[in-house]
Amino acid sequence: MHVARLSLSLAAALALSAPLSFDAQATSPIMSEGNNGVSAAAMKQADILREAALHDETAWHVLESLTTEVGPRVAGSEADARAVTWMVAKFKALGFDKVWTEPVTFPKWVRRSESAAIVGASAQPLHVTALGGSAGGIVTGEIVRFATLAELEAAPAGSLTGKIAFLDYRMERMKDGSGYGPGSRGRSRGPSAAIRAGASAYLMRSVGTDDHRNPHTGMTRYDEGLTPAPAAAVSNPDADQLARLLKRGAVQVKLALDCGWDGEYTSQNVIAEIRGRGKPDEVVGIGGHLDSWDLGTGAIDDGAGIAITTAAALLIKQQPMRPLRTIRVIAFANEEQGLHGGRAYAEAHNATVAKHQIMAESDFGAGRIYAITFSESGRDSAAAKQIETALAPLGITPATEGGPGPDVIASAQNGVAWAELQQDGTDYFDLHHTPDDTLDKVDPEALKQNVAAYAVFAWLAANASDSFGSAPKAAETAR
Amino acid sequence: MHVARLSLSLAAALALSAPLSFDAQATSPIMSEGNNGVSAAAMKQADILREAALHDETAWHVLESLTTEVGPRVAGSEADARAVTWMVAKFKALGFDKVWTEPVTFPKWVRRSESAAIVGASAQPLHVTALGGSAGGIVTGEIVRFATLAELEAAPAGSLTGKIAFLDYRMERMKDGSGYGPGSRGRSRGPSAAIRAGASAYLMRSVGTDDHRNPHTGMTRYDEGLTPAPAAAVSNPDADQLARLLKRGAVQVKLALDCGWDGEYTSQNVIAEIRGRGKPDEVVGIGGHLDSWDLGTGAIDDGAGIAITTAAALLIKQQPMRPLRTIRVIAFANEEQGLHGGRAYAEAHNATVAKHQIMAESDFGAGRIYAITFSESGRDSAAAKQIETALAPLGITPATEGGPGPDVIASAQNGVAWAELQQDGTDYFDLHHTPDDTLDKVDPEALKQNVAAYAVFAWLAANASDSFGSAPKAAETAR
Predict the structure, then answer these.
(1) N or C, fewer C-beta in 10 Å, chain A?
(2) Chain B residue nearest residue A235, CA to CA
(3) What is the distance between the alpha carbons of residues B331 and B329, in angstroms, rounded to a whole number?
(4) B151-179: average pLDDT
């Protein structure tokens, strides 16, 4: 709070005192003058960008176009290819200087059908969805409830033979989404724990904070050496129902999943650039992931990220002076099933780690950004401080806790500096990985605030005279 | 507002001045003394009932039991029979004096499967549900949008040949639910209008106020002489999506419904009584409907009505003095598909119209009751005024607009007086006829307020010395 107020005053002072100079040939006013960060003129331009973004409809139009015309675009599906085509065409139509694709190959998982029901005296349907990566199969068995993953992991081998393990853990609603960690561990590790105890199938309360009949999908993986068993999530109200019925006696459930792995698929990272005027081979990388789960239309996850970063880059292009460095927007392929796009990008660009000024991915919906953090290497740079100052009028304060966006993790491991623009995720897990992830759930005003933040961030990072500390990590790149 | 404040003062004054007398043999203190309505002692007892209800958990337990153990209970299904068995057992276990069933026969409609998708360049699934009574069939065609039912009804014969009519009317959110009339007309009349214009199928925006991927089901009927075509509702976000796509060009939809009529079924109205001490053959009838749609577990529609009225009657039984007249709780069969239970009740009890002091059905969820109205015949009775007085502390004010609950309509047509305890339905159509109609959507405190209102109403109506004007209607009964 203290820091925020201080930054706000600083921003106002700078805006009032900064001399204006927009000679496209003269780079010095935009370059840093003495503070080794960002020039006063660039800071002034950031103010202009910020205000312009709050009245810019581009992100909404991009998001509407993607979620409407392409709709759900699960990795490896026919819609994945349509999304790539759409993204290339959209970048070109919007006037980016350069647009290209880079291949991303991954195993393809297919959901064909899924259903479940309580059988017996209280027969009734359950709303389920297969976890991504689940094996198919039809299983009927008594469910055995576990309140926590730890309890399930403590179940002795053979103790669940012929049974369906039911993990009844409800994730916590938090602004920073930190309830997702404990929740999603049940999704990633639960199936293997169930199989080790002998269970025929795995059923879990969705990793979600809502009270709708929407199961939340998301990936799981089976530990090596285990025979995969069907794994699915039930909606929160369905989990409540199972818990109530279990208080009355044994509960039999029939689970039928038709899904599984089906060869390989090659999708594309779609990349577009606004070329820098002074150091065009140095890049500020922003973006989101182009794939979505199949249940919704991928508005908050992650059409919003694509729309926000595309609109931010475009706003920068529309200013009278180009940024010093290149702004690169990356629409990553297949984040959902294993960060494949981010990994492919890191591998393809490993030779130019030092040329990456900084990277930031928007992949936590479209709630307002309230904090920013930088990788340790860049946190104390003059440019970081000036970015924090320029973001303060948007209600954004500096933070120390955080991490790179999912598709930036691999690049960060290679040594690329990162920033995280932290969004309010209070409602994110009401919608995440459900049919309800649709355009109407996005607040257009919050979306604009995101664009403003990314435009300011990218612009200032691209014009900074100092670096955020990107440097190849020999040990890491060998992994 | 003025009336409410006046009633509140009156209630307080009566409560303070009323002599207490609970001799089960002496009826005079409970009977009216001079005002031809309800005695001061009965009014005092109403205050006690009202307060007791606000701490009574019975309704919640009944509602939890029904929605959990029986779950969805669509008329004619296996679960319909389970619901009847459950209701009989529950009434008996709760200690009602008399429990019986009366047959209700109706045509049986069955939903087997339903799906829809946009096909072509923006291929994506749609969340649909067949309208009750719909014919099955698989249809692919271009959709033609109509903003209102009037526009669709004006479409010339042959103008929709080979097309799917799409009614894109969104119902309005209103406290009194009055947005449902215009909305549900599109459901009842839309399919016939579409067929008359030559359409191969009918698709409508759900009659609902939510923004979830839940289609709302509900009955439709085809006009005589028309060949039924598949008729379904899409969720609000899906309707938004169709509307957005239509702005971009033609939209092809594939609709596949497997459903239809399948013979007859005989269910039961389940009836229970708290026997009156003085005029046991005269009855105050309260209740709800036992059937639900199949998509949810029928918590707000209408498990709540069953729970509220059951708990209210039971609370009355638990008082030191029995009511003068009998309190009858009626769990009506198959309201959803044509008010069959209410019609059967009216027919079976047509000879005792005059013995029905008054009837009231709770069938608008579990939101707080904010108003009460009576049929014209009883609106100005002294008892009605005193009921209004006793309900005022619950925030309930007299109203003149209103009508009998759906299962009371047929009895009202036969001449039975009715009351309507009007619930706040602001959120009702977020859930109505969807998978989201589940227990967690019910506010336990609002449920208790409903029980309090029904207990006070039934108790005072049962003890009134005057009538609400029930009288056989020769002309009406001949219908």
Answers:
(1) N
(2) B436
(3) 7
(4) 97
Q: Looking at the predicted structure, is the pLDDT value of residue B24 above 70?
A: no
Q: With an 8 Å Cβ cutoff, is B303 touching chain A?
A: no
Q: Residue B212 and residue A431: Cα distance in Å, rounded?
A: 10
Quick one: closest CA in B to A249, which residue? B69
Please give the Cα distance from B307 to B450 (Å, whole number).
10
C-alpha–C-alpha distance, residues B270 and B92, integer Å:
11
- The chain B residue lying nearest A431, using CA atoms, is B212
Residues B322-378: pLDDT tens digits? Answer: 999 999 999 999 999 999 999 999 999 999 999 999 999 999 999 999 999 999 999
The CB density around residue A402, as the number of other CB atoms within 10 Å, is 17
From chain A, pick out residues whose CB is under 8 angstroms from the CB of B436.
212-213, 237
The answer, for A70 touching chain B at a CB cutoff of 8 Å, is: yes
Show me where the domains of chain B are located.
30-97+275-463, 108-263
Angle subtended at Cα A315 by Cα A312 and Cα A320, rounded to the nearest 5 degrees? 145
Q: Do A440 and B297 touch (CB under 8 A)?
A: no
Q: Do A237 and B436 touch (CB under 8 A)?
A: yes
The class of domain B30-97+275-463 in CATH terms is alpha beta
Closest CB to B69 among A71, A78, A122: A122
In chain A, positions 253-292, which contact chain B (CB-CB < 8 Å)? Answer: none
Which one has a higher pLDDT value, A236 or B478? A236
Pair A135, A192: CB distance under 8 Å? no
What CATH topology corresponds to B108-263? Glucose Oxidase; domain 1 (3.50.30)
Any chain B CB within 8 A of the CB of A443? Answer: no
Mean pLDDT by 10 residues, chain A (479 residues): 29 32 40 68 96 98 98 98 98 98 98 98 98 98 98 98 98 96 97 98 98 98 98 98 98 98 98 98 98 98 98 97 97 98 98 98 98 96 97 97 97 98 98 98 98 98 96 63
Q: Is A79 on the interface with B (CB under 8 A)?
A: yes
Check CB contact under 8 Å for B71 and A297.
no
Interface of A with B in 166-225 (CB under 8 A): 211-214
Predicted pLDDT at B37: 83
Say what the pLDDT of residue A37 is: 84
Q: Which residues of A touch B443 (CB under 8 A)?
A: none
> Mean pLDDT over residues B257-274, rounded?
98
pLDDT value at B30 more than 60: no
